[in-house]
Design goal:
single chain; mainly alpha; 7 helices; elongated
Length: 148
C-alpha cells in the first residue's frame, strides 16, 4: 500500500466521522462510538504504524526543539503523513467532544455545525468558536430576559 493510499484511506475514514457528527448528531452510534472512539482508534493505529516504521528515516537534525528541527522532521514523507494522520485523529476527537458537550449544554445543533466545520478545517479556530458559542448560550440562559 502506497503512502497516497494510506492518506486517502485515513482521510476518508475521518470524513465519515465528520459526516456523522454533522448529519446524524443524535444517533448514539455516531456520537458515542464512531466519531470519538472507533475512527480515531483506526486512524491512530495507522499513526503508530507510520511512526514505528519511520524511526530509521528521521534526520539527525530533526526534533521539536526548534523550527528548523521540525522542518527537518517533516522532510520525510512518511512523517508528513504521520503528522496529517495526527491532525485527523485529534481534530475529529475535538469535534466529537464539541458535539457531546453541546448536547449536554442544550445548544441547538444548527449553532454547532459551523463550529464543527471550522474544527474540521482549522481545529483551534473551531474550538475557539465553539467555546464562544457555549459561553454565549450560557449567558443567554442566565440573563434576566430569558428567565421571565
Amino acid at each position: 500500500m502506497t503512502l497516497e493510499h494510506v492518506f486517502s484511506l485515513c482521510s476518508g475514514l475521518a470524513i465519515l466521522g465528520w459526516l456523522g457528527l454533522v448529519l446524524a448528531p443524535r444517533w448514539h452510534i455516531t456520537r458515542d462510538w464512531m466519531a470519538p472512539v472507533a475512527v480515531p482508534l483506526m486512524i491512530g493505529s495507522v499513526y503508530i504504524w507510520l511512526m514505528a516504521n519511520s524511526l530509521d528515516a528521521i534526520p539527525s537534525d530533526a526534533g521539536f526543539g526548534s523550527l528548523a528541527g521540525v522542518t527537518a522532521l517533516y522532510s520525510v514523507p512518511e512523517l508528513v503523513l504521520a503528522g496529517w494522520v495526527h491532525y485527523l485523529v485529534f481534530d475529529l476527537f475535538v469535534g466529537a467532544w464539541e458535539l457531546q458537550d453541546s448536547q449536554k449544554e442544550g445548544i441547538h445543533h444548527l449553532l454547532v455545525i459551523p463550529c464543527l466545520l471550522l474544527t474540521l478545517m482549522a481545529a483551534p479556530a473551531g474550538l475557539v468558536l465553539y467555546l464562544v458559542v457555549k459561553r454565549a448560550h450560557r449567558s443567554a440562559r442566565q440573563s434576566p430576559l430569558s428567565q421571565g
